[in-house]
Design brief:
The chain has 248 residues and is of the alpha+beta class.
Length: 248
């Protein structure tokens, strides 16, 4: 029975600690019973005791588990492990499927993207940014909204962390940061939990590391001049650009 989610969705929509624990349960064959029904999946998952789990086929976060967290309607590792089983059918996980990137990092590899690769990355960025949207809903949906922001930032972190280092990709990241800043300043994004701000700061640190590998990346920072940003995240990059001008 097909689901409306895949492993990528499960990974990015789950907090890293819960996903890691769920993977551990899955790989240690702690799911001893797995049954399909019309609208979802039932499973028995072995933890400190046997837990009865049900998840929807349309949204793995909708369901139930009789563990401590599940009884409080909090997504638990047992539900996530069941979701992994639903999409993988008990098959082994690849290393890249288990890899968790919760903040952007520098790949450390020099290079440029070809036209096809650049187009693919830009499309992936656009898809990820869709999770970072404005919020005007009732208070009862606020946590679901914050989860959407977290997922968008997790997806963006994975994209950024795989990019080669060059002025081309530095330009790409500067444009991404300005798009996110606009969402924060005028786009109605409620970043109360700091997910978007944290991603922006992590990407600025990544760009600083870019300049140590390829000084041409510094040229990308000129675009930040006379930008009125939300919290001055651009300052370290402008400082690097100014110091380069002085050196030259």
């Amino acid at each position: 029975m097909p689901t409306n989610y895949n492993l990528e969705k499960i990974k990015f929509a789950t907090d890293p600690a819960t996903f890691e624990r769920a993977v551990n349960l899955y790989e240690k064959n702690k799911i001893t019973r797995f049954e399909k029904e019309l609208n979802g999946f039932f499973a028995t998952v072995i933890g400190t005791k046997s837990y009865n789990v049900y998840i929807s086929k349309t949204h793995f976060g909708r369901g139930s588990c009789d563990c401590y967290l599940g009884e409080r309607d909090i997504l638990c590792k047992h539900m996530v492990a069941t979701a992994i089983y639903a999409v993988k059918n008990g098959k082994p996980l690849k290393s890249e499927e288990k890899e968790i990137v919760d903040m952007p990092i520098c790949s450390g590899k020099l290079g440029e993207l070809n036209k096809e690769e650049l187009l693919t990355v830009k499309k992936a960025i656009t898809q990820a940014i869709k999770y970072i949207k404005s919020y005007q809903g009732p208070s009862k949906t606020w946590f679901a909204y914050q989860n959407s922001l977290n997922e968008g930032c997790a997806r963006l972190s994975a994209i950024v962390s795989k990019l080669p280092v060059s002025q081309q990709t530095a330009d790409l990241l500067i444009d991404l940061l300005l798009r996110l800043d606009k969402k924060l300043c005028t786009g109605g994004v409620d970043d109360s939990n700091g997910a978007v701000g944290g991603f922006i700061e992590g990407t600025v640190i990544t760009l600083q590391k870019y300049t140590k590998l390829d000084k041409n990346c510094i040229k990308s920072f000129e675009k930040l001049y006379q930008q009125d940003t939300c919290f001055g995240w651009e300052s370290p990059l402008i400082r690097i650009f100014d110091e380069r001008d002085i050196d030259n």
